[in-house]
Specification:
This protein is mainly α and about 220 residues long. Helices cover about 80% and strands about 0% of the residues. The chain has nine helices and no strands. Helix 1 runs antiparallel to helix 2, helix 2 packs antiparallel against helix 3 and helix 6 packs antiparallel against helix 7.
């Protein structure tokens, strides 16, 4: 009997404490629940919205390729530029590379704007970003000064990117075209000391060094 009375009093005390805590904090509790629900709904909506955007982007990319095959260049350019400004790390790059590979835009200023937009408005995996830097430097090598080109490609020269040997090759070719063979030799030679380099790149750099030595 005494035991049951004690347990009853204990239960009532627990309930009273819970009620007091609830009454004192119900605004906070409801706020937390409200924030949790809103966050969950927002994340779900954001995820679904992104899925739809990516589906539309993939459909537009395919449509642009069809336009190109049919010779409708202007329609393809319009779709691909729209894809670039969607700021999707995957499809925006695909759209841009298609413009480059098909030589759809020849205006240097416009291409530079598109390059800069991609790099400044997307979060890429490091090697994708490095590929863009290399592509931009390769494009600019026809117009840029020596100092501007080296500065632009420096992120690849200072690190251990997969694109470092390609960047060195680009600079070697750049100085070879200007008949500055001492500088060209410097960059080709750096390729030969990179560890685990692809055999074709090693052979190409070695071949170009031999040509320089024979011609100089």
């Amino acid at each position: 009997m005494t035991k049951n009375l004690f347990e009853t009093q204990y239960d009532l005390t627990k309930k009273n404490k819970f009620k007091i805590f609830y009454d004192s904090n119900k605004k906070l509790i409801f706020s937390i629940i409200f924030i949790f629900v809103i966050t969950s709904v927002s994340l779900t909506y954001y995820s679904e919205s992104n899925k739809k955007k990516r589906i539309l982007l993939s459909e537009d990319y395919i449509k642009a390729k069809v336009y190109l095959e049919n010779g409708e260049k202007n329609k393809a350019i319009k779709i691909l530029k729209k894809g670039i400004y969607f700021n999707d790390p995957s499809y925006s790059v695909l759209c841009f590379f298609l413009i480059l590979d098909a030589n759809l835009i020849e205006d240097f200023t416009e291409l530079s704007i598109l390059f800069n937009h991609l790099l400044e408005n997307n979060k890429f995996e490091k090697e994708t970003e490095n590929l863009l830097i290399y592509k931009k430097a390769m494009f600019n090598s026809n117009f840029a000064t020596e100092s501007a080109l080296i500065e632009e490609i420096r992120p690849l020269l200072d690190g251990n990117s997969l694109w470092k040997p390609h960047a060195l090759m680009l600079l070697g070719d750049y100085f070879t075209s200007k008949k500055e063979y001492t500088k060209a030799r410097e960059f080709y030679s750096q390729i030969l000391i990179i560890e685990n380099i692809e055999r074709n790149l090693f052979d190409e750099a070695k071949s170009k060094l031999l040509l320089i030595n024979n011609d100089w």
